[in-house]
Amino acid sequence: AGRSVAVLDLGTRPGGQYFRHAGKPSRELAKLLSSTTGVRMLHGRRVFLVEPGPPFTIHTVDGEPVVADAVVIATGAHDRVVPFPGWDLPGVLTAGGAQALWKGNKVLPGKRIVVAGTGPFLLPVAAGLATGSAEVIGVFEANDPRRFARFPLVLGRNPAKLVEAAGYLATLARHHVPVRNRHAVVAAHGDDRVTSVTVARVDGGWRPVPHTERLINCDTVAVGCGFVPQVDIGLALGCASEIAPDGTVVLTVDERQQTSVPGVFAAGEVTGVGGVRLSLAEGTIAGRSVAGVPAPGRSRRHVDFARAMAAVYPVRDGWLEWLSGDTLLCRCEEVDYDTVRHATELGARDARAVKLLTRAGMGWCQGRMCAGAVACAINVPVEPAKRILAQPVRLGDLATTEELG
DSSP secondary-structure letter at 186? Predict the structure, then answer.
């Protein structure tokens, strides 16, 4: 629409988390962007602060600040993982991390791999690793995807989703990879790295069914229980937030994808995890809204599918029964389950009080990986964490910032 646009992308090439694994879409995106006037691509930029506006000043770890009349936050999401004994062993990584290694760099994370957790994302991860010559021992899904049968109208309006899932399952079948529903990795074992896992059948609340445990030898475990939206920039700007159906914190937007802060828009997983089609639709709406031209509405079928997905793949609190007292909940600060429970005995009634008493959430990730687990352990909702800095930043970067809003 003739507006001057700067794209601050953490990646080294266009396409983000979804398209980066395939060379052709990335090349097509690069060609499109290079031929579009008024678009400035700034790759490798890690945004740590956006000063309120308008005009807004966007500060990055690597590069000069960028000044803009409007901001579209499209920072995506990261893996959600629930702890289990041994999850801090080398060789245990997130499903997204395993996919990034293989799809982004053609590096397999291991030779004998177990894929576990919940959500449809496990299937493409396992299929990709299997086609990459890794031995995928099995896919262990804690929920039961057959619950999608409760949403026949949603499935009927999203046939491409069924075709996509069938393709992944066919790939896994060709590579003789078993898929086990209502099963979970409840412990990982090893000394200096993971050498095996214990897998058990779980009930509808994710409580292990007695006498169903079995030991599986492996050198890698890829785990993921859905995604956590990366809403730090929006919260720091004062944008309103809400709890999504999957229990995560998301930014609240209107039909134009505008947040509660004028001039700040949001698109994709930061407004709720819903998949690539919904993210692309929201990006189109946000871009056209900023430019002041008519925008199409969000596709109802994509929104309905996202809600159905949250209902089929919830994270149940029965995972607490997997834990031993010395199981780490916060890996950065090495805070275990017993320490968190002791904090409640000392009077802690929310995650912030637990953080002050135990240091859980004060480490490198600033609670991004453990906040949900700690909240569940003390039976309180996840609280939006407003941080002035959205990313870890060096003192030198702060020293070059003359004034912080």
Answer: E
User: Is the distance from CB of 208 to CB of 359 less than 8 angstroms?
Assistant: no
Exposed e or buried b for every residue in 301-310, given b needs 16+ CB within 10 A? bbbbbbbbbb
403 vs 391, more confident? 391
pLDDT digits (tens, 9 = 90+) for 339-366: 999 998 888 888 889 999 999 988 888 8
Neighbours of 379 (CB within 10 A): 9
Inter-residue contact 113 to 138 (CB < 8 Å)? no
* 227-229 vs 77-79, strand pairing mode: antiparallel
Q: How far is CA 154 from CA 286, 350, 361, in A?
A: 25, 37, 38
CA distance 127 to 402: 49
Tokens of 299: 């596709």
* Count of other CB atoms within 10 angstroms of residue 271: 27
The answer, yes or no, to whether residue 395 has pLDDT greater than 70, is yes
